[in-house]
Amino acid sequence: MIDGVCLIVDAAEGAMAQTKYVLSRALKMGLKPIVVLNKCDKDDAWGRIEDGAVELELFETFDSLGANDEQMDYVTVYASGKAGWATTDIELAREFSTGAKEVNGNGKEISMRVLLDSILENIPPPEVSVLKGITIAEEEPFAMAATSVGVDNFLGRLCTGRIYSGTIQKNDVVALIKREMSPEDVEKSTLSTSSISGMFVNRGVLRTALDPPFAKAGDIVTLAGVPENIAVGDTLTLKSNPVNHALNTPPITPPTLSMEIGANTSPLAGTEGTLVSSSRVRERLYSETDNNVTLSITKSETDGERSVVHARGELQLGILIEQMRREGYECKCCLPNYCRFKKSIL
Fold this sequence. Notes:
This protein is α+β, with helices and mostly antiparallel strands. Helix content is 25%, strand content 27%. The chain folds into 3 domains: 6-122, P-loop containing nucleotide triphosphate hydrolases (Rossmann fold, 3-Layer(aba) Sandwich), CATH 3.40.50; 137-238, Elongation Factor Tu (Ef-tu), domain 3 (Beta Barrel); 257-339, Alpha-Beta Plaits (2-Layer Sandwich). The chain contains 10 helices and 18 strands. An 8-stranded antiparallel β-sheet has the order 9-8-14-5-6-13-10-11, with no helix packed on it. A 4-stranded mixed β-sheet has the order 1-2-3-4.
């Protein structure tokens, strides 16, 4: 959904492991980051900036992740989010950080406006065109790629994504084009349709209803009332004026670990939880996939009472198991690699 990225680095601590991961994803997309050295006014930060340690770490990080020459020529913004200032002038940043110049909030150079101006100057506007020969995005047929899907108990099926062309409003009837469909399949198949019952946007951490309920190309919105069989990477379009192909979307990273989860069969079953049957456990696992698109559930080939959960790693599985335990579920979990040695994780 994005057209640019700000890489925020703690000036005192440098690039962390998670920083390298998200930066690698951005570089693979061909994006040129804006580097924001935050917390420049911390005790150890400015000394690391002056002796070049921070820049050297960033250079080595970019180089190890395969950044090209253009991506290496990034803009650096020195900032302190706590103090409320940002600047691209290293001398001015030194004065603010060392206290040689007071940050009084007057003037463009001693506010966060410099960071916003850098975003406007260096990050291109979104491309809003899926058809050739039409220059006005609002005149094109509506097309939106599903980036995230979920379920709300009151609103039903939800889909969040970016609108690539056209416009949409509440009560419009949309059609679903699956990611794997070719243009020939789109023409021959009967597409799933539904009526949009709500439109929302994120304001900070809150989801707010659009008023008026209308969105156009370039907007990132959440739609309620989308077809039930929608998945990440699928395309939504208007039934009355559809596009003839699915949008090109990156595939979901495949899972790296699987675990078999079933009902607790030990003699102490039922002493800690109240939901102990295999059907309840399986139902809970499948409900998790409604809002967690990185999980997938299949039936066990060796035990019909168990389900195999495919996930990204041990931490994700650990969080899921702990959530189920707090909800009153009792289950027996077994990693396939341990099963050979008759070892189980309870």
